[in-house]
User: Fold Acyl-CoA dehydrogenase from Ottowia flava.
Amino acid sequence: MSYQAPVKDMLFNIEHLARIEEVAKMPGFEDAGLETAQAVLEECAKFNEGVVAPLNVPGDLNPSSLKDHVVTTTPGFKAAFKQFAEGGWQGLQHPTDFGGQGLPKAIGAACIEMLNSANLSFALCPLLTDGAIEALLTAGSDELKATYLEKLVSGEWTGTMNLTEPQAGSDLALVRTKAEPQPDGTYKVFGTKIFITYGEHDMADNIVHLVLARVAGAPEGVKGISLFVVPKFVLKDDGALGDRNDVYCVSIEHKMGIKASPTAVLQFGDHGGATGYLVGEENRGLEYMFIMMNSARYAVGVQGIAIAERAYQHALAYAKERVQSRPVDGSVKGAATIIHHPDVRRMLMTMRALTEGCRAMALTAAAAYDAAHHHPDAEVRKQNQAFYEFMVPLVKGYSTEMSLEVTDLGVQVHGGMGFIEETGAAQYYRDAKILTIYEGTTAIQANDLVGRKTARDGAQGAKAIAEQIAATEKALTASGTDNAKAVAQRLAAARQAFVDSAEYIAAQSKSDPNAAYAGSVPYLLLAGNLVAGWQLGRALLVAEAAGDDAFMKAKAVTARFYADHILTRAPGLRDAIVEGAASVTALAPEAF
Amino acid sequence: MSYQAPVKDMLFNIEHLARIEEVAKMPGFEDAGLETAQAVLEECAKFNEGVVAPLNVPGDLNPSSLKDHVVTTTPGFKAAFKQFAEGGWQGLQHPTDFGGQGLPKAIGAACIEMLNSANLSFALCPLLTDGAIEALLTAGSDELKATYLEKLVSGEWTGTMNLTEPQAGSDLALVRTKAEPQPDGTYKVFGTKIFITYGEHDMADNIVHLVLARVAGAPEGVKGISLFVVPKFVLKDDGALGDRNDVYCVSIEHKMGIKASPTAVLQFGDHGGATGYLVGEENRGLEYMFIMMNSARYAVGVQGIAIAERAYQHALAYAKERVQSRPVDGSVKGAATIIHHPDVRRMLMTMRALTEGCRAMALTAAAAYDAAHHHPDAEVRKQNQAFYEFMVPLVKGYSTEMSLEVTDLGVQVHGGMGFIEETGAAQYYRDAKILTIYEGTTAIQANDLVGRKTARDGAQGAKAIAEQIAATEKALTASGTDNAKAVAQRLAAARQAFVDSAEYIAAQSKSDPNAAYAGSVPYLLLAGNLVAGWQLGRALLVAEAAGDDAFMKAKAVTARFYADHILTRAPGLRDAIVEGAASVTALAPEAF
Assistant:
């Protein structure tokens, strides 16, 4: 099944929700208006449709393999990655100082969606490299930046994030990897890291591992963790590749999905110690790692949207082709294509509405990121930063959870054929399941949303967002169409559910933390549901003002469907959060 | 991960909800009281835990394979199946006249759950045999019964259902397989059937295919379909195995899950015609096939409960063992097992509540089946038959859809380890996805619920069930505990949502069938959600009256959790059904 990038929908969001022309007024983004967006997206679509997407099924059938510490990726990956690098796609959002194109996230995020729709496994390598670049840009010394950034931005080298150890998954306080200072200012790193995506592969000349480790004598827990660069090949003084560093891939995982992307166990220092270079200051590693994590979390949310889009396209094509049964409304004599059946339409509309809603949320969040970094007014930057930070767990948590629903429906639309691997729908179902887990499970995102983003300021930030939503409701009601009024009503009910929940969680967080955290994931799902519906409400305002246009009409129908079928889940979530906390923990651990 | 059959919970349901002692008063069930249930379940648990469960992972790793029309099952399957047959497990619910044990479905269903928890792929073979037995019992001639039933009931031979063809999946009107009458009264069968579970294998001496086909000159559509027995080996006059019949397995599918169960493409008649024997009368095949289907649909619902139970046990064991992070309530100093974290508890409670709720629904329905067939009073039989028929799409549709949620949560509890195949949680996630598809997709179940079970009688049957639920609410309110009152309130809200939806659907079904069917699956989910919650409400009444007992306390907490977290989804579903139908079909097929 071929992939067609939804360029039109992306540009709609970039123009009307992310408001790219406003972004293009900010210093540094002068050339990044709608015209640039269109040109970049069209080029990006061509590359991903033509080069990357055809490798998706082969990657599943013929995953990366390991022999003698060497990982060989799926045939075709290496050549495609070379094209990816040469096309400048790795550097899209990175600074021109290091060879990037310095484009806004509002454009870059759409490109990242395409890459992930085309091939989730392939796209993971650049995703991790982006994280490494962010960390070095923020915390690296000038020397580290000069040494590594250009090669990473150009896609000649790739980056990894080395956090997890067998005993330390979500709980980084338990990290045990050691770093011993050397007289020359470098460190020797010893330890085992697991779940390292593209921790070893054959697509680039060097791999720049960013590694969490403890320096001897550091405080216990997360306050004693430092961040190191550990390159696969140590560099000579002239920057050329030198000796093989003492970090080796000892195994790769046998996974349910994203099989083409090698998930490595890396062994550091079994032959004398791996040479590492401190990033920033000792014991501030977690802080720096969060920079990578925040970039990666947003990107994983985009992965959710991407796989949902691909699953939707696959199911839609089948629904338009498969003939089965007479429509209940008698609109077709005899058996019809299954898209004529109301429940198939309900499934397709659900897939479409969730995907478009989350895309709208992600691109709106991207514009806030751009403003937070480029707007000339400090107060505006601050507001946008706060908004973006609230959005990150929603983009990550909600978009990935919805991708499980969408990929499930994608199989379901296919009936029995969906369960047969050759059909292709099952791969999305298997691939998607990692997205609610890595870069922090949905519960970890929800902890962030509850703790840092809601309880800390007494739900003030949450309520500020609710006020923005109320303003959209007003505009919808004023616009006066049936769709707009109906959407406004659903938004109002969902918003009230959200405010009740935020207030409850803020109130309980100190006095009864179990009660606050018992509702953490439902609260995240409620917030994500609401914000995506809100963005579709904004889209509806644009669409209904646009007159007679097929795309705009479909957008209006999709927004209405979302309100009737997805936003209506919100009040039930509120009841579970606000009135159901006690029953979550009523059964003691030993009573299970 | 070993499996432990939840014998205690099953017996609780059999005693208090299925009321086995009432069943034991019916003619033919005199020996089938609680004591018998306990003895059978304990024996069944031993067999499935010890013999069948250990083959679950090997089946996934080393699936059935095909060579020269011969299917070889996973090593160990054949021997285990022999033990299964020798233990008399195939005949548990079948008439003593043909060598069965004639036990009530209320006991048999629990045994079937165990078998499926132990090994979904293995259990499919007996499941299909049960269907073939039902069809022959109801529609077979005395000669067919005498020839085949004993061997099927004893497990020496197995049965299959041959419905699907490449162009005819949900739409059996499109069946093209032909049957040509022969002078000796037999038929020659020609055609291709796909998706035939255990259509070929090495676990039994003969395979009795029940095949839908058209006799030349039959009416078009479903009214021209007849049912045939086509044995793999034609029998000699003395009943011994004779010639190999002209039905061959030409390929088996490469599936996402249930890999050990061979899903065959069967070719009938390529070498002169497969010998077939008419079941019942010509052109009444669909009617007979529905007998098999109804038996199989209920059983697939039980499969959903079974895989959910297994996923729950797996996740629970991990949650009690994996140490990660400090509990938010400070109840443990330092890192604790993850079951101490509220969101892990919420996931486990969700898994547990859905599983127990659906088990309660299924076993209550089983008791209705028993009464419908064995109660001395015709009026009581009729009422129970109506109730059972309403339950079948709920047991099938809701229990399987919930199993997707439960197996997803099962992976999620494991974090990154869940995505690694060796952990085992991923297999449940992959296996479960077939359950919402085969024996009629969720949409097909929902069509049945909307058309035959709700619209046909103007929602009278639905409202009669609602009245029974209202009576339980009254009893809960009268019992006066906090849990009971809270559950009664949630039940009342969900019941009202159900009645609104049923009335809406009945009202629209003629005038606006698209509107009725647009809400078909949400209506099924709402009805299933409510009925499972109702049964947990009944369980709560028993549990809270039982005094100080750990099992009973846990049951009460689970019922309360279900009410707060699952029943609260019902009003949102009602809004989508009653107020959201138009947006489902507003976008025309050609506008996608």
